[in-house]
Design goal:
single chain, 375 residues, mainly alpha, 5 strands
């Protein structure tokens, strides 16, 4: 789930507006029969609505070419991923089915993407990352040679999952349902989520993500600006493993790297499927580490450099067949190490490399970064 890049095409779906409130009814526990009945409602969503959701993935334009997993050293167990798994240990099979069904609908993501200004300006459930993220965003805008004034940074809060009016709007706008049906689905989701085992919507499972969007115009809806979205869950995870002082900076620097890619035309490639996604993600890792290390960027000391390298490592994945493959933990670590090394070289000359120059250097390095490394 972590660090998903959404292209313009990914949200080019038919959208209609409107939002209406549904009755609010807090409930901290449900019987098994009640939960199963509500889950059945979510699993029986009409095909027309599911087609809208499917378009969010299909219109990425990525093929399903598979990278051979036997060629690479890869582990899906990292401290932050293990922390997330541990947070779900007390879930029953029914709880897991509910969480998966709700998350597959992506209501929090859609709400944040479509209505970023309504997400607020507080990063982290208690606002604990707000200063770090807003200051880093300001500095990134001065560091890289792109226009950043139109980019919106928005928090992704799980509280959306118990907010019936916002959920109703998501099911109307994102799925094309009428108000009555959208409100009934919103009530089902909110009732299921407003339970202790899901932390009343704030469980990190639902917001363990950060992503960048290039922005687009949707006829009949309006303009969605270029966005960087930071989920509460992924920030909480790195706090739990002791990397909170650099996590916000590192993740934002990576996502800002995607904004550089959007503005400089760096998303175009002859690669397809997982290889295309991996290229974008490893390049963004390199952009991020270049900024974090550079004397005119975040100027992190070596101890902090080692910490942010661990962040890139811990968010690697082994999903070699997935169109959203980000690179293995080692590949992400090596891409970040390379970016850091380039920063150490160029800062001695007292300048910041133009983004296109840095990207060209990365393209030359990429075959080495993704070369098979299995024993």
């Amino acid at each position: 789930m972590a660090w998903k890049t959404i292209t313009k095409a990914a949200l080019a779906v038919a959208l209609i507006g409107g939002v209406a409130a549904a009755p609010a009814q807090a409930q901290t526990s449900l019987t098994t029969d009640q939960s199963q009945a509500l889950l059945a409602r979510l699993q029986a969503i009409p095909a027309a609505g599911l087609a809208h959701a499917k378009a969010l993935k299909d219109q990425l334009g990525l093929d399903d070419d598979v990278i051979n997993p036997a060629d690479y050293q890869c582990t899906s167990s990292t401290p932050v991923r293990d922390w997330l798994a541990a947070s779900e240990q007390k879930w029953t099979p029914l709880d897991r089915a509910i969480a998966t069904s709700v998350n597959n609908l992506q209501p929090v993501l859609l709400d944040t993407v479509l209505f970023p200004k309504e997400a607020g300006t507080q990063f982290g459930q208690r606002g604990e990352y707000t200063t770090q993220i807003t200051h880093t965003f300001r500095d990134l805008g001065k560091f890289w040679d792109i226009q950043s004034s139109q980019i919106v940074i928005a928090p992704m809060h799980g509280s959306v999952l118990t907010d019936r009016p916002r959920l109703t709007r998501v099911f109307q706008v994102g799925f094309g349902f009428d108000q009555v049906f959208a409100a009934s689905l919103a009530d089902a989701v909110a009732t299921l989520m407003d339970q202790d085992q899901f932390d009343h919507g704030n469980h990190p499972f639902f917001t363990f993500n950060a992503f960048a969007l290039g922005g687009l115009d949707i006829p009949g809806f309006g303009t969605i600006p270029p966005e960087i979205v930071m989920g509460d869950g992924v920030l909480a995870g790195f706090t739990a493993v002791g990397l909170d002082d650099v996590a916000g900076k590192a993740i934002l620097a990576h996502e800002f790297g995607h904004q550089v890619q959007f503005q400089k035309g760096l998303t175009q490639t002859t690669l397809t499927g997982p290889e295309a996604s991996r290229r974008l993600e490893l390049m963004a890792d390199a952009f991020g580490s270049y900024y974090l290390t550079h004397a005119r960027g975040a100027t992190l000391r070596w101890k902090r450099v080692q910490e942010f390298l661990q962040i890139f490592y811990q968010l690697g994945d082994c999903q070699f067949a997935a169109a959203s493959h980000h690179g293995t933990p080692l590949q992400r670590l090596h891409a970040a190490e390379w970016g850091s090394a380039v920063a150490a070289d160029t800062q001695k000359q007292g300048h910041i490399l133009p983004s296109l120059t840095f990207a060209a250097m990365f393209e030359q390095k990429l075959p080495e970064l993704v070369a098979p490394d299995a024993p």
